[in-house]
TrEMBL record:
Family designation: Belongs to the ATP-dependent DNA ligase family.
Organism of provenance: Mycolicibacterium iranicum (Mycobacterium iranicum)
Gene this chain is encoded by: ligB
Positions annotated to bind ATP: E210, R217, R232, E261, F300, R372, K378
Alphabetized GO MF terms: ATP binding; DNA binding; DNA ligase (ATP) activity; metal ion binding
Protein name: Probable DNA ligase
All copies of domain ATP-dependent DNA ligase family profile, residue ranges: 288-412
UniProt record, GO biological process: cell division; DNA biosynthetic process; DNA recombination; DNA repair; DNA replication
Keywords: ATP-binding, Cell cycle, Cell division, DNA damage, DNA recombination, DNA repair, DNA replication, Ligase, Magnesium, Metal-binding, Nucleotide-binding
Lineage: Bacteria, Bacillati, Actinomycetota, Actinomycetes, Mycobacteriales
Catalyses which reaction(s): ATP + (deoxyribonucleotide)n-3'-hydroxyl + 5'-phospho-(deoxyribonucleotide)m = (deoxyribonucleotide)n+m + AMP + diphosphate
Known role: DNA ligase that seals nicks in double-stranded DNA during DNA replication, DNA recombination and DNA repair.
Length: 511
């Protein structure tokens, strides 16, 4: 299969708003594939992932690339192999060698292919080919029921592999994607509720409320004395978390698959900042890493135990089995209630303990692996700040030609300037994108043809965010977590924006 076919399909999908049209276009592309390997790679790419996950290439590596080739010649297999070679290049002179390999790849690519590759490598391939669209496209290409493909994908935790099997072997080939200890499963995800009362109403009047810890979600697999630990994105981090392995081996079972949260706690039981927990996931070295900052583990769901699958059981039954094997000190705090006041008190107590909020779960809901099920709702307080736009970046995909990713700054009363706290492109409607493109071109303070357009610091924007984290990237030493636009504040001037002192106070409250 030629890369040009994938690049053109990606471009067409990005400019198509209709879901069915996206599905049909991707299905047509998959039918052109030369074999299972091509299918696996294409599904991965159109989902915005390299098969290698990371190869050490970002925007800085792509600032200058060779002129585009006149005619397409690259194949999917060739490009995937080149990505692998770039990612595996290490040691002395590796940076120069990666630059050389990347230049050779882009020199062989046409203009359309270069655009696709650039967006793929920088994580900017926002074309609307989300997991649900991809599952339906695979099903359509293979002429199989979407429910069968979706089930295989959630149990196998690997849609590209499921796609390759479906197109090569039909429905019978999907039978090998079963729940197995040691093989990660796509985690169930949650929708959002506006508060505990909203959650109770949406869940039928009664809910299991659980503390939503500000840690890292993990999936723990055990078979006899073999333990595997996977992240939410299904990366294997077993060797980095020996204390979680030890805790899993202490449970009175021989086989299990469980959902849990790993978190770094202070001596008083309050959580460290999220980066402390996250740093353990980037460290290697077993006991040496553990001694740096020990993690605690809290289990909150059970998918399989001693040969019995629990996915389709009601949540209340799964939790009962979990409680029977996991000590109370290693389970998340939980409250089952239909009383909004008790639920609110539980939320307040959880927040006071330094955690993110609560999860509200239907006692009757099954475990919908790999899906954002209606049976799980997250309730978190929303923080907002009025910040000033300092610069803005040109968008890609559906946002090509629009100024999209905005740079956010807080006012510094001492210097009269602004301190950058992060960027965001989230929360923007099509109407907002059109407005801000016009507005920021009017405020441009320099060239507008480059990737980033500096603007005069005049436009105030209300930003919602989930918290603040330590950052070495920005001069204030802090960065917003999960920032998104609420609205532009034309009723405020930059003199009315929140100050860096206000932001520091919020940051210090989390300590």
């Amino acid at each position: 299969m030629l890369l040009i076919d994938v690049a053109r399909a990606s471009s067409e999908v990005a400019t198509t708003s209709a879901r069915l049209a996206k599905i049909a276009r991707i299905a047509d592309l998959l039918r052109l594939a030369d074999g299972g390997d091509d299918v696996r790679v294409v599904v991965s790419w159109l989902s915005g992932e390299l098969t290698q996950r990371q190869i050490g290439v970002g925007w800085a590596s792509l600032r200058s690339v060779p002129d585009a080739a006149a005619h397409p010649s690259l194949t999917v297999a060739d490009v995937d192999a080149r990505f692998g070679e770039i990612g595996n290049t290490a040691g002395k002179g590796s940076q120069a060698r990666r630059t050389e390999l990347l230049a050779a790849l882009f020199a062989a690519a046409t203009g359309v292919e270069q655009t696709f590759l650039r967006r793929l490598l920088t994580g900017e391939l926002r074309q609307g080919a989300l997991i649900g669209v991809m599952v339906d496209a695979v099903a359509k290409a293979a002429e199989l029921p979407a429910v069968a493909v979706r089930r295989a994908a959630m149990l196998g935790g690997d849609l590209p592999a499921v796609a390759a099997a479906a197109l090569a072997g039909g429905q019978s080939a999907l039978g090998r994607f079963t729940l197995q200890a040691g093989k990660p499963v796509g985690p169930m995800l949650a929708q959002t509720a506006t508060g505990v009362a909203d959650a109770l109403e949406r869940l039928g009047g009664t809910a299991m409320f659980e503390a939503k810890l500000d840690g890292a979600r993990v999936q723990i697999h055990r078979r006899d004395d073999m333990v595997s630990i996977f992240t939410r994105s299904l990366d294997d981090v077993t060797e980095r978390l020996p204390e979680l392995v030890e805790a899993s081996l202490a449970l009175p079972v021989t086989e299990l698959i469980a959902d849990a949260e790993a978190i770094a706690l202070k001596a008083d039981g309050r959580p460290h900042r999220f980066q402390i927990t996250a740093s353990r996931f980037g460290r290697r070295g077993g006991k040496a890493a553990e001694q740096h900052q020990k993690l605690s583990v809290f289990f909150f769901d059970l998918l399989h135990v001693d040969g019995i699958d629990l996915l389709d059981l009601p949540a209340a039954d799964r939790i009962a089995k979990l409680d029977a094997i996991v000590p109370a000190t290693q389970r998340v705090d939980r409250l089952v209630t239909s009383d909004p006041e008790r639920a609110k008190a539980f939320l307040d107590a959880t927040l006071a303990a330094g955690h993110e909020g609560v999860m509200a779960k239907s006692p009757t809901a099954p475990y919908e692996a790999g899906r954002r099920g209606a049976g799980w709702l997250k309730v978190k307080p929303v923080h907002t700040l009025d910040l000033v736009v300092l610069a803005v970046e040109w968008g890609s995909g559906r946002r090509t030609g629009k100024l999209s990713n905005i740079h956010l700054g807080a006012r510094d009363p001492e210097t009269g300037g602004f301190v950058m706290l992060g960027k965001t492109f989230k929360g923007m409607t099509d109407e907002m994108l059109a407005w801000q493109t016009k507005r920021f071109l009017e405020l441009a303070d320099g060239p507008t043809a480059g990737y980033t357009v500096k603007v005069r610091p005049e436009q105030v924007v209300e930003i919602a965010f989930d918290g603040l984290q330590t950052s070495t990237r920005y001069p204030g030493g802090m960065a917003l977590r999960f920032a998104r636009v609420v609205r532009y504040r034309d009723d405020k001037t930059c003199a009315d924006a929140d100050t860096i002192d206000t932001v520091r106070a919020l940051y210090q409250q989390a300590d």
